[in-house]
Amino acid sequence: MDFEFSSAQKAFRRDVRAWLAANLPEDLKVDDAQDERVAPNRAIFERRRAWQLKLYNAGYAGLAWPREYGGRAATVIEQFIWDEEYGHARGPVMPGYFGLNMCGPTLMQWGTDEQKNRYLKRILTAADIWCQGYSEPGAGSDLANIATRAVDHGDYFSISGQKVWTSGAQYADRMFLLARTDPDAPKHKGISYLLMDMKSPGVEVRPLVTMNGHEHFNEVFFDNVAVPRENLVGRINEGWKVAMTTLSYERGFAGGGGHRGQVERLAALAKTVELGGRPAWEQAWVRQRLTELLIDCEAARYARLRTLTRMLKGLPPGPEGSILKLFGSELGVRIARFSTELLSTYGILGDPTVAVPDAPRWMNRVLSSRQYTIAGGTSEIQRNIIGERTLGLPKG
Questions:
Q1: What radius of gyration do the chain's Cα atoms show?
Q2: Based on the domain organization, do 175 and 273 belong to the same domain?
Q3: Distant-in-sequence contacts of 285-291, Cβ < 8 A, 24+ apart
Q4: Is residue 263 domain-shared with residue 233, that is, in the same domain?
Q5: Structural domain span for residue 26
Q6: Residue 100 lies inside a defined structural domain of this protein
Q7: How confident is the prediction along the chain (396 residues), in pLDDT tens digits per residue?
Q8: Which CATH number is 141's domain given?
Q9: Is residue 26 domain-shared with residue 83, that is, in the same domain?
């Protein structure tokens, strides 16, 4: 694998960096994009929606999507460069990220021509914001155990049940969801993949406030919600195959993000925050831990490059997704733990201080980092996937 970028790719990086410097508003920038991936209120959400439209008009939303679907047909290397530069510029997660990263690519593979024509352009422009209806109160880690029912009435399905931990549902126009259409089929059979209008009668969204005060998540209830048959993706009762396609895209970004920026900021704080009456940086264990975390960040970067290599060869997503999800989410927990050791009580304050102006950021890391070991498939599930499907180990 060649780790050097070509002159054209370096030029593309310069262009992206310059465009972001000229166009990304200061008040839209965020410190930890994944932790702030859902806007805290409607006003900021609408500003981010307008920002995504601006990115689309500049050719940066859906950068690697095929031209026939409204994308720029950029190479995966260019997409990788864009992601790096966007992160460095502290750009917010686009409000249409579920559509851009998960639903859109899934529809390209499984959707009908009518579904592609109807939805893909609107995903790119943020005209439609999507949320994901997978997890349920009794089926989180065991996704195939879902109980939400979709009764087939011929030209439409009626959906009843509940989803939980639904990120961004309070702003979403549409949901891609799994529902059981054959209750007598084996667990992984009899499931169908459906597209639902969130404004349909019978849909109720209730917020779930996390312990750091964020309202990322929601409960969504369905009471005989009518979904037209043309909103079925793939074949009836064979939605598990479609769902696995979506999950393969999800795990590429479900491990949290911005790790290197967090570690670099902690390194800067180590030079001003005191431990034992002297700057923390002067203590060998602090420098050692920072070095270890930076090495981990580089390892995660090369795992992403392995994924790029598969894509460049025209191969489908492989075990790198689970490896990156597992490693990235656990790395986030290690960073949060170190922040408490370095910053002591400053790391659990909800207000800025003179010593640590961004103290709320680190409190949020401590409270939020563990969620990434659960979302998108728990660490235990990822270890099973890697062990059984990649290493060929027997099931436990």
A1: 22
A2: no
A3: 286/342, 289/338, 289/341, 290/263, 290/266, 290/338
A4: no
A5: 7-95
A6: no
A7: 566 889 999 999 999 999 999 999 999 999 888 778 899 999 999 999 999 999 999 999 999 899 999 999 988 789 889 988 999 999 999 999 999 999 999 999 999 999 999 999 999 999 999 999 999 998 867 889 999 999 999 999 999 999 999 999 999 999 999 999 999 999 899 999 999 999 999 999 999 988 878 888 999 999 999 999 999 999 999 999 999 888 877 655 444 458 998 999 999 999 999 998 899 999 999 999 999 999 999 998 888 777 777 766 767 666 777 888 899 999 999 999 999 999 998 888 888 999 999 998 999 888 888 888 887 778 888 898 889 888 888 886
A8: 2.40.110.10
A9: yes
Q: Do 75 and 143 have their domain in common? A: no
Place of tokens 């639904």: 166
Question: Which residue matches tokens 């598969």?
Answer: 310
Residues in the chain: 396
* Domain-embedded: residue 224: yes
Which tokens sit at 41? 């209120």
Candidate list 250, 274, 282, 341, residue with the active-site label: 250
Is residue 222 in some structural domain? yes
Which three-class secondary structure state does DSSP give residue 351? coil
CA dihedral 75, 328, 207, 144 (to 10 degrees): 80
CATH of the domain at 48: 1.10.540.10
This prediction's pTM: 0.85
Q: Does the annotation mark 330 as catalytic? A: no
